[in-house]
Amino acid sequence: MKNRLYIITCLLLCSVLLVQCGRKNNSNNKQQKIAVVISTLNNPWFVFLGEQASAKAQSLGYETRLFDSQNNTALESDHFDNIIVEGFDAILFNSTDADGSVANVQKAKTAGIPVFCMDREINSLNAATSQILSDSYSGAVSIGKCFVQQLNKKGNYVELLGLVGDNNTWARSKGFHSVVDNYPGLKLVAQQSADFDRNKAMEVMESTLQAHPDIDGIFCGNDAMAMGAYQALLSAGKADKVKVFGFDGAADVINAIKENKVCATGMQFPLIMAQTAATFADEYIKGKRDFPRKVPVAVELVTKKNVDDYIAYGKK
């Protein structure tokens, strides 16, 4: 009788241990999650960035979810709140505002969730674990040199700026002007923000052409605005007289360069930025803590001469 009770007790203890081990294994095997927060999915460039970041994270074994901030810092803040509550393990982040997004990154850091910025910088050296950014200034310097050559160092021109809260807007503008302002024959007749948006760029250029019908060139802070500006020129019958310059490396501008509709663009490499951010997040989750604060990614000039070497958002 005693032996039977002893055996039953042992079996019960073994059952409890097996259940506990099973629970522990299920917890350890729970798939970890990476959030991808993008400033806007109303632009093909950012759609590509978000999709590539998600794809790389998934290939590394993570569950991912893509969040669209719609260029709204308040909506971005809601996304971060949900990400923290749901216990994501890392955030791959494309910010809406260099200053306004800092608080969102900081609260994720406080919650123990690392943030890896892609393409768009935030104005903090300590909030994000790392920032992987296009070298917009140097890329715009190259465009400025091409601009000067194409306009033969003289003429009136317009500049379309991106979002005023994005550091890329000003890095590109400053890089461009660091070259162009050295030529007194080149006169800036209008400078206005079109928020990196194609439709807004078309509207801005339609109004600008009414005030300044005699222009020779347009420098646009991204390719979406370049295509909007070109559409306005086409409607005004000036498409063959005004030289348009963009920045991004989007598919429609690569094709427009081949068709002599756009002169040049700065090719960014969102695939590199997205994959680097996802790889960094994976390394952090696995224990690494030493990351560079900023990782610059070179921008390459694309013109009619070398356009066949490129495809949308990268090289062939």
Tell me the Rg in angstroms.
25 Å
- Find the CATH topology of the largest domain: Rossmann fold
* Strand coverage percent: 15-25%
Shape: elongated
Q: In the CATH hierarchy, what is the superfamily of the largest domain? A: Response regulator
What is the CATH class name of the largest domain? Alpha Beta
Indicate the low-confidence ranges by residue numbers.
Answer: 1-28
What separation lies between the terminal Cα atoms? 80 Å
Subcellular location: Cell envelope
GO cellular component, one term: cell envelope
Domain Periplasmic binding protein: 34-288
GO molecular function: carbohydrate binding
What does this structure look like?
This protein is α/β, with parallel strands linked by helices and 316 residues long. The chain has two domains: 33-133 and 270-296, Rossmann fold; 136-269 and 305-311, 3-Layer(aba) Sandwich (Rossmann fold), CATH 3.40.50.2300. 46% of the residues lie in helices and 19% in strands. It contains ten helices and 14 strands. Strands 2-1-3-4-5-11 form a six-stranded parallel β-sheet, with helices on both faces. Helix 3 (73-85) packs parallel to helix 4. It is elongated. Mean pLDDT is 92; it is low at 1-28. Belongs to the bacterial solute-binding protein 2 family. GO terms for molecular function: carbohydrate binding. Pfam families: Peripla_BP_4 (PF13407). Residues 1-21 form the signal peptide.
